[in-house]
From TrEMBL:
GO MF annotation list: UDP-glucosyltransferase activity
Coiled coil: 405-442
Protein name: Glycosyltransferase
Keyword line: Coiled coil, Glycosyltransferase, Transferase
Keyword set includes Glycosyltransferase: yes
Residue ranges constituting the Glycosyltransferase N-terminal domain according to the UniProt record: 3-224
PANTHER family hit by this protein: GLYCOSYLTRANSFERASE
Uppermost EC category: transferase
Source organism: Rhynchospora tenuis
One Pfam entry name: UDPGT
EC number(s) reported in the record: 2.4.1.-
Length: 459
């Protein structure tokens, strides 16, 4: 959403980016740099009611919480409606429209009060949005009772199989029914939909989705390609990014082009100590250089001892272990990186695609399983590790290993090797990266859609 706000401001539109204090601290350096560039971008903070809902002060993001608190966080978002309404009423000039994501269906009421258009911004792929809509329309998840039971998404140009557990939707769990119903209704009544994708990547699904929704779908991505400022790339999501960037990039500088595998599974999903060790052994067995990012929440005393006293010493010539956040976009942009083992979050996939990096896919939950099918089965840009198991945050005593070292080693060799299949994936990745660049350049499909979106609101 920050990238979209900055992009609209670069086109001369006056934009107010509505956020909360903890989120603001993460994106403040990027927004401040936009303001220093004299972009018409206003930064509006609304206090999030953390303490009122029983959370510690400043806890406003999923990656700060255990999964048991996720629903509480989502339910509290609606409490931002009144302060936003008051903020808008305090300004003499009403907004021309509101763009909000599926987590904030309460913005429907804001749009009604101010008689303005409301656009829904979908963060995931168009394929996911389409499958989510179709499964909801046909009430498939109501009919499937067993979470391990498979079903096929109907009305699609290809066969897509899921289980109820990894089905294409965000709010597929007991207790989330109202949030899901509100999100579906907000999407149905929106004036238009905005997607972070591009026509050359998901053209057939965009066309189907627009027909299904019976409204305009503006595809404006990949949004990360509009940001050509190297300093801002290092700051994405963390104001301390530049401090780590120099160390990581210096290590990458010492390796051959396209030789390093980057391993990162996003900010939310966690692995238990047994699975982390199994992953480490698999990476070690490949004899390929790698950067492996571990979340601070994953580094238990047991894992820390294993890393410090054993693993890091064995792989020090080829492996770089990062604890906590890293400047992902800067790493993927480095010429030494030739592969990305990813959780299949859509932002990560788009960054990889836009930079021509093929992937090893290891989805964990929600849209990630659908995104994997797009990358591997539709686009031919990656190798799947074959897991269909949903994995959020394992219990402390959970020692389950979902993906074994042999499978990890085989996938890395398949992606990073010199066989024809690996070379073909690299060719396809390079071709799609060029198409992404053309889409966002002046006159490209996404560039023109940004123009059309602005004109449709301002007319």
């Amino acid at each position: 959403m920050t990238d979209l706000a900055s992009l609209l401001a670069e086109r001369g539109v006056h934009v107010s980016l509505i956020t909360t204090p903890a989120c603001a601290s993460r994106i403040q350096p990027i927004v401040q740099r936009s303001i220093e560039s004299n972009l018409p971008l206003q930064f509006v903070e609304l206090k999030f009611p953390s303490t009122e809902i029983g959370l510690p002060d400043g806890y406003e993001n999923l990656d700060q919480l255990e999964r048991s608190h996720f629903l509480t966080l989502y339910e509290a978002l609606e409490q931002l409606r009144e302060p936003l309404e008051l903020h808008l009423k305090d300004h003499n000039i009403p907004p021309s429209c509101i763009i909000s994501d599926g987590c904030n269906p309460w913005t429907t009421e804001i749009a009604r009060i101010f008689c303005i258009p409301r656009l829904v911004f979908h963060g995931p792929s168009c394929l996911f949005a389409l499958c989510d809509h179709i499964t909801s329309k046909h009430k498939i998840l109501h009919d499937v009772t067993d979470y391990s039971e498979q079903f096929v998404v109907p009305d699609m140009p290809l066969t897509l199989r899921f289980t109820k557990a990894n089905a294409p939707n965000f709010f597929n769990a007991p207790g989330w029914e109202k949030i899901r119903d509100d999100a579906i209704e907000a999407e149905r009544t929106a004036d238009a939909i905005v997607l972070n994708t591009f026509e050359e990547l998901e053209g057939q699904f965009i066309e189907l989705y627009e027909k299904e929704m019976e409204k305009k779908v503006w595809t404006v991505g990949p949004l990360n390609l509009y940001n050509k400022d190297e300093y801002s790339k290092s700051l994405r999501g963390n104001k301390q990014g530049s401090e780590k960037q120099e160390i990581v990039l210096n290590w990458l500088d010492s390796h051959k082009p396209k030789s390093v595998l980057y391993v990162n599974f996003g900010s939310i999903a966690r692995k238990n100590s047994s699975q982390l060790k199994e992953l480490g052994f698999g990476l070690e067995a490949t004899d390929k250089p790698f950067i492996w990012v571990l979340k601070e929440a994953e580094i238990t005393p047991e894992v820390d001892r294993w890393l410090s006293e054993d693993f890091e010493k064995r792989v020090q010539q080829k492996g770089f272990i990062c604890r906590g956040w890293v400047p992902q976009l800067a790493i993927l942009s480095h010429p030494s990186v030739g592969g990305f083992m990813t959780h299949c979050g859509w932002n990560s996939i788009l960054e990889s695609i836009s930079l021509g990096i093929p992937m090893i896919t290891w989805p964990h939950f929600s849209d990630q399983f659908t995104n994997e099918k797009l990358v591997v089965d539709v686009l031919g840009l990656g190798v799947s590790l074959g897991t269909e198991t949903v994995c959020w945050m394992p219990a402390e005593d959970d020692n389950t290993i979902w993906v074994h070292r042999d499978d990890i080693e085989k996938a890395v060799q398949k992606l990073m090797g010199e066989e024809e299949e690996a070379r073909e994936m690299r060719r396809k990745a390079a071709d799609m990266a060029e198409k992404a660049k053309i889409a966002t350049d002046n006159g490209g499909s996404s560039y023109n859609n940004i123009t059309g979106l602005i004109e449709s609101v301002m007319q």
